[in-house]
Structures are given as C-alpha cells and as structure tokens.
Amino acid sequence: MAENNKACILIVDDERINIKALSALLCDDYRIKIALSGRKALEIADSFSAPDLILLDVMMPEMDGYEVCKVIKNTKSTCHIPIIFITGKVDEEDETRGLNLGAVDYITKPFRPAIVSARVKTQIKVKQQSDLLAEMSYLDGLTDNHNRRSFDETLEIEWQSSLRYKRPLSLLMMDIDCFKQYNDFYGHQQGDSCLQSVASCLKNSIMRSTDHIARYGGEEFCVILPETGHESACDFAEKLREKVDAMHINHASSNCVDHITLSIGVATDVPTEGKTAKSLICSADAFLYQAKASGRNKVAFERPVIDGQ
Ligand SMILES: [Mg+2]
Q1: Which of 24, 30, 147, 225 makes a 20 to 30 Å CA pair with 187?
Q2: What distance in Å separates the CA atoms of residue 148 and residue 47, rounded to the nearest whole number?
Q3: pLDDT for the residue 224
Q4: Which of 92, 219, 220, 231 is catalytic?
C-alpha cells in the first residue's frame, strides 16, 4: 500500500524503549507518529494531519494518559480519534477508568505483539468505516457533489474565517433553466441524468481546493468562493455558464434556447460584525432571480457604482 494511503498511528509513551518496540511492530502496516509527552500528543492530535488511532501510555510525568485522554475526548476537533491505553497497570479499576474516559480498548504491558496487532487492526477498521459514513453524510447521493448540509456548514466556517481576516467571500447560486419543463418533457429518469451531467461539469470546473460546490436542492447548485473578490467571482460564474451552455444537452421544451442552460446570481461581501452568512445567500438568490427574470442563461450581479453614471 502506498505510504500516504496507510492509516496513521500516534504512539505516546515517555519511555523510548516502548515506542521503539511498538513502532517496530506496526511500522510495516501503518504510518507512525510518536510523542514522548502528553503535551506533544495533544499537539499532534489537533494538527492538520491527525492520527487515525492513538496508543496511549498511562504513566507519564507531568500529564498522565488519563488526562491526555480526557482532553482529546472533550475537544471537538479530536474527540473522534480512537484511543487504546497501553499500560503496566493491571487493576480492574484502572482499566474501567480508562474505558470510562472514552478509550476503545486497554492493553496491558508487557504486551504480546500478536494481540496488539490484532486489536490495532480492528480499531483501524472501525475508524475507517466511521470516516466513510461521515463522508457520505455530506454527499448528495444523486450527483456525488456535496449536499445542503455540507454547504450550510462550510458557508458558516468560511463566513467566520472571512470575518476574522477581513477578506471577501463570494457565493454563486445557480439554477438549471426550465428544469421542470425538462422533467415533464423527457421524464424524471432523464432529468436525473441531466442533473448528474451538469453537476459533474460544474464539479470538474472547480480548480481551487478551497472552492466548495454543493447541490443546494432540486436543480439548484451553489459555489462558495473564499478569498474571492466580486470581479473574479463574476468571471468564474460566466465561465460556468458558458461550460454548461457548451454541453448542448437538448431541451426541446425550454422557454429560453433549445438546450440546457444555467442562470447564476453572484454575491460578494466582506463580512462585518452583526451580519450573518444568510445575507450573502439572500443577495445571491436575489441576483439569481434577476438573471431568470431578464431572460435566463445569464449571470446577474450587483453592478459597481461608477461616478458620473
Ligand atoms: Mg510510562
């Protein structure tokens, strides 16, 4: 398996000899990170490339394993990471305490390599399945794009981040023109396949990893464009409109032209205290309405005020 596709395990122990033994046992199948203290473990757990599993020693100076476990389980960004305690303490009471703090398993030292391997393998499998489920809950089943839930959460995060750094945030709201007529004329199955084609065209047009496209509902899609000013957002919207226009998906009953087209509303704002992300949605939605009202297959946006005009 390619190194990057391997699950990542964080081994936390204040004694290097234990880290060495566990690393040697697991390094062929997993990527290994190590921490010699509780503080370092918390730092790694909360980093961008968080581990998939933590093997946590209980007896450590300054901050013991129980304390580390408590912080990890009470922190939103890390609480999903499973923890296995590895410890010399063999009391039933200690084991219960560890499990009550949210650890998924408890292995006693001196550990038997085959047992550690098997238990690690089981927990990694559970973690991968739960990651997959979490990912699926943010996807739209029909188009494989992000869904409304994902859109709502991402817009809120980007709004807060734009507020903090005083940066512009743009939003495109788009709608397939005369889609009801398309469904009525061609049937819902072809309607679904049209949605899939348009969604995939839009998705493939997203070039920056920070831009977020989602199916807003029905035949509506949105793109969140962080750190993007008004002009660039309008240019990008026009590019998307042109791409879908160029697909030439027949639409014999359209009021607009003889193929599938998009109307797009563009809104840009630099968030300020007191405003919410809803204002951006309202504005983009109003321009989408304007694009439709003025003939469809158009991008509508707020025109900048120019002196003397
Ligand atoms: Mg120790």
Answers
A1: 147
A2: 27
A3: 98
A4: 219
